[in-house]
Design a protein that fits this description.
The longest helix has about 35 residues. The strands form four sheets. The protein has a five-stranded antiparallel sheet with strand order 10-3-2-12-11, with no helix packed on it. The protein has a four-stranded antiparallel sheet with strand order 7-6-5-8, with no helix packed on it. A two-stranded antiparallel ribbon has the order 1-13. Helices cover about 50% and strands about 15% of the residues. The protein is built from 14 helices and 13 strands. The protein is of the alpha+beta class and about 475 residues long.
Length: about 475
């Protein structure tokens, strides 16, 4: 038995079917409109046999999906660009310049990193001794020292303080420091002034209860902050910044033990190390690809090149680097030659192994049967399959070369000291690692080396993966 709902549904379908049939029977049929002939387009017909696939476009699309690799590529590109722009920026110290104090002539050794040369600020109305800096217009040396007292000189304490004592010496009133370095001779009740005192060490008598000097030497201030008097005493017209140098450009990475600017040396050393890395990577790629292709494709050379590889590879690379650097004069060319001497082995082996896998595939056999030359087969059939391997090896050889340079310099056979490199800087910095105050001389070059090494490694792996056609959609 059908339900009422099913019965109504069948009646509705039957009615629609009858109505449609009536319309078809009454409507005129134009046979010319039933079929339309398609125009033949020879260009469109040819396109149906090809794909719009582009290997390099697909490679870049896959690579740019890796956000970490893209970020590091931007960081590495900015770092490379800055290494070349840094010497052109205003106010930069030359990398090998030994910076001396303009007043004392002493080397500005082991100055801590700072973004300013300002040591202290003198409030408006402060009296200071002032003297124009010769050869540097617009700057004055200033201090607030009234007199220099010899050891055992007697003076009268007229006002006692925990940090400063107001004293009178030969009718001159000023302030002396009251600390463990001066060791003032004080009575049992030093607040019961006045009384006579002295020190076992030389003292300086200051105009105010503050030391406006840099370990006893004068500080520097621009003339615009001073109102000069006839007696050599100047008064600050505003809050005047007193600086350790007649310059606003600070030692951002500090200085080394002979007063060289570490900021300039780090970037100069980065340029040198990267240049070594790129040269070694290029030579390794050219020699490695050439030898690897011949080794893998030309069967007659397989045994010979295998024996050559075994002989050279059985000698530790470190021993070869040390021997070459020791026998020849240490320098840039020697270091590059020593690295290139054996660096191509890894590239050649990888290329050979890949070519052995694909050299007898159908398309290569067909090319040989058609009489295609060996060179064309290598360029057209083999090398395109090896892009990922070549890219990865080149990307890893750059930080590898920098690491070798650091090692050779570490053992004293690397670049000369007058040619900054990351190896030189790390070698000098590691001697100071036990001193917390000087540890920055190792930290900054090590950070730059780490960024370069990690970036090349991750970018190389990401691009190698992107260059593999298996990962293309």
């Amino acid at each position: 038995m059908l339900s009422i709902k099913d019965t109504k549904s069948q009646k509705l379908e039957k009615a629609l079917s009858e109505q449609l049939q009536k319309e078809l029977d009454t409507a005129p049929v134009n046979e010319d409109e039933l079929f339309v002939l398609a125009d033949y387009d020879e260009t469109a017909a040819e396109k149906t046999g090809y794909s719009n696939y582009s290997y390099w476009r697909s490679t870049l699309q896959v690579f740019f999906k890796n956000r970490v690799a893209v970020f590091l590529l931007i960081v590495l590109g900015a770092l490379l660009l800055f290494t070349f722009l840094q010497p052109l920026l205003p106010g930069q110290y030359p990398a090998n310049l030994i910076n001396n104090h303009p007043q004392t002539g002493k080397q500005l050794s082991n100055i801590a990193p700072s973004f300013t040369t300002q040591l202290v600020t003198a409030p408006a109305g402060t009296q200071l001794n002032a003297e124009a800096v010769k050869g540097n217009d617009g700057w004055y040396t200033v201090d607030n020292v009234l007199k220099s007292l010899k050891a055992r000189d007697k003076f009268t304490v007229i006002e006692y303080g925990e940090e400063w004592c107001k004293v009178e010496f030969k009718k001159v009133t000023g302030y002396v420091k009251n600390n463990f370095q001066t060791k003032l001779k004080l009575p049992d009740d030093p607040t019961a002034v006045p009384y006579e005192s002295r020190s076992n060490f030389p003292l300086k008598l200051y105009m105010q209860p503050v030391d406006y000097t840099n370990d006893g030497t004068a500080l520097y201030v621009e003339a615009s902050h001073l109102e000069l008097g006839e007696d050599g005493i100047a008064v600050t017209v505003d809050d005047a910044p007193l600086r350790i140098l007649p310059s606003e450009h600070a030692f951002w990475f500090g200085t080394n033990n002979i007063g060289q600017d570490l900021w300039s040396r780090v970037w100069s050393g980065t340029r040198t190390s990267l240049l070594i890395g790129f040269i070694v990577a290029f030579v390794e790629a050219v020699v490695g690809i050439l030898v690897g292709v011949l080794w893998g494709y030309v069967r007659k050379l397989d045994r010979l090149l295998t024996e050559v590889y075994n002989v050279i590879d059985n000698i530790p690379n470190t021993i070869i680097l040390i021997l070459i650097s020791y026998i020849l004069k240490p320098g840039f060319k020697t270091l590059v030659f020593a690295m290139c001497l054996t660096g191509w082995l890894g590239m050649a082996r990888f290329i050979r192994n890949q070519i052995v896998i694909i050299r007898d595939r159908d398309y290569n056999l067909a090319s040989r049967c058609l009489g295609t030359g060996t060179g064309r087969i290598i360029l057209k059939n083999l090398l395109p399959y090896l892009v990922s391997v070549i890219t990865l090896r080149m990307a890893l050889s750059i930080p590898g070369a920098i690491g070798n340079e650091v090692f050779i310099t570490y053992i004293g056979l690397g670049l000369p000291v007058d040619l900054p490199s990351l190896g030189n800087l790390i070698n000098e910095g590691r001697k100071l690692i036990t001193s917390a105050a000087l540890r920055y001389q190792l930290i900054f070059p090590a950070i730059v080396l780490s960024i370069v090494t990690i970036s090349f490694y991750i970018i190389g792996n990401a691009f190698a993966d992107a260059a593999d056609p298996k990962n293309h959609v």
